[in-house]
Amino acid sequence: MIKNLVVLGSGSAGLIAALSFRRKLPQIQVSVVRDPSIGVIGVGEGTTPNFPRHLFDYLGIPRKTFYELAEPTWKLGIRFNWGAREHFNYTFAPQLDARLAQLPLPNGFYCDEVFDNLDLSSALMNQGKVFPAQANGCPDIQPWHAFHIENEKFVAVLEKIAVASGVEFIDGRVDDCRRNDNGLKAILLEDGRLIEGDYFIDCSGFRSELLGKALQEPFLDFKKTLFCDRAVVGGWERTEEPILPYTTSEQMSTGWCWQIEHERLINRGYVYCSDMISDEEAANEFRAKNPKVPDDPRIVKFRSGCYQRMWVDNVVAIGNAGGFVEPLEATALMIVCSHVQTLINFIQHSQLAPSPSMRDLYNRVTHETWLDIRDFLGLHYKPDTAMKTPFWDRCREETDLSGIEELLEFYRENGPTGFCRYSLQSTQNDFGLEGYLVMLLGHRVPHQKPYQPTDEECKIWRAHLEANKRKAQGGLTVEEALAYVRDPRWQWHDNPQG
Ligand SMILES: Cc1cc2nc3c(=O)[nH]c(=O)nc-3n(C[C@H](O)[C@H](O)[C@H](O)COP(=O)(O)OP(=O)(O)OC[C@H]3O[C@@H](n4cnc5c(N)ncnc54)[C@H](O)[C@@H]3O)c2cc1C
């Protein structure tokens, strides 16, 4: 019976886990152990729509509090300056896994040439606008948004809410563990204190102190699919640049570069493959592209992959302690929120005493999420035909996409039909078929069913794109929408039940 939960780590993963347990299982005592001298990772700033849902709907954090303290900006999707097209937008609303009522085939069959303004989000992104305007001029805040958020600010906000929710914080460095027949009995701090618990969540970041180090769970490397293993990170104070309502991802000689938009800061990072470019060369290429980046950008090393099992005995890992992939789709916080919800669900259904079969099922479900994301990210690389560098040649030749071979084959034969979903092994991620179709069409991957619409169909299709564009043109910029939600007369409609 779980009565006393110890969370190791107070980065975003540890705090989201601790707060979620307090909120949903208040009968369990929650302590967070962390070492302020190690600190939090300090990167991780793009999110997906399950993140606001987790904060506001699941945890019941009032929007007003969150907006005031965390100062997020909105993200409608990712603009890929990437591949055979000049750019394409991956939005959080269905662009391709959808069909107009007046047309016979799904949208994907109509965008061989023009893959733009397919939905309102994409049109808003193209116009540099974040939300359409209501009749009274106020932003019509749509559910299909995520946030850009500064990691350290976010952690500070969560910590404040966690303290108010009764989470106990213990400062100290974990040095060792004590075990019993159920797994871990206690963690031992450097100063000799023993912190006992009957269930442990390892959120110690890349150090994976409990799952990786203490329990020695084997790590599954994704290096056959994802070749990048470092990032050079830097940013600058915003001056005249407008706040864009999306993350930008663009190809570089040996990887790709993100741009994330905060209100006062622009955050940039170049994710690269250290086998094929030195840190110094990567930093030089990064600075040449971003002259405003300071002279000493930070280098962050990582390995893409996950532990074989996330839950071993009475220890479960969440966040970077359990697995990590490069931030190409900002998946880390998405997985944190989704796995925390799954875990709490499993523990609730087990009446706080989870059985081995419940644990095995959790491991199967979470493992599938990681494999799905590995393959989805791999699909950003392999179909590229634009970049002619040794790194991109290698991506085309060597990226292992055997996990989605059935989908790729079905797409080749049948094009962007919604039936492609039946060739996916699992649907354990938030991207779904939409994500795969955006990558396949964004890269203009050829298929054997090109469609020639009639003149009438072309007219309907063009009118649809034009209507999205016109509505977007009348929308609000991020700056304008922020001014509205900060006005004392603005009212959020929260669900206080969480
Ligand atoms: C280059 C890069 C870019 C990223 N971009 C994104 C993004 O855009 N979107 C996204 O969702 N994610 C992104 N991430 C991932 C993101 O950083 C993490 O999802 C998120 O911040 C969670 O981190 P964490 O809580 O697991 O670990 P951390 O923030 O590293 O926290 C670890 C915690 O463990 C504690 N700790 C560790 N060892 C000990 C010990 N021995 N004793 C006591 N305490 C200990 C530390 O004190 C700290 O509190 C990015 C990551 C990298 C590397």
TrEMBL record:
Binding site residues for FAD: 174
Binding positions (L-tryptophan): 329
A GO MF term: monooxygenase activity
Active-site residues, Swiss-Prot/TrEMBL: 75
Residues engaged in binding 7-chloro-L-tryptophan: 75
Domain of life: Bacteria
InterPro entries attached to this UniProt entry: FAD/NAD-bd_sf, Flavin-dep_Halogenase_NPB, Flavin_halogenase, Trp_halogen
Pfam families: Trp_halogenase (PF04820)
Keywords: FAD, Flavoprotein, Nucleotide-binding
Transmembrane segments: none
PANTHER family: FAD-BINDING PROTEIN (PTHR43747), FLAVIN-DEPENDENT TRYPTOPHAN HALOGENASE (PTHR43747:SF4)
Protein's name in the database: Tryptophan halogenase
Source organism per UniProt: Roseibacillus persicicus
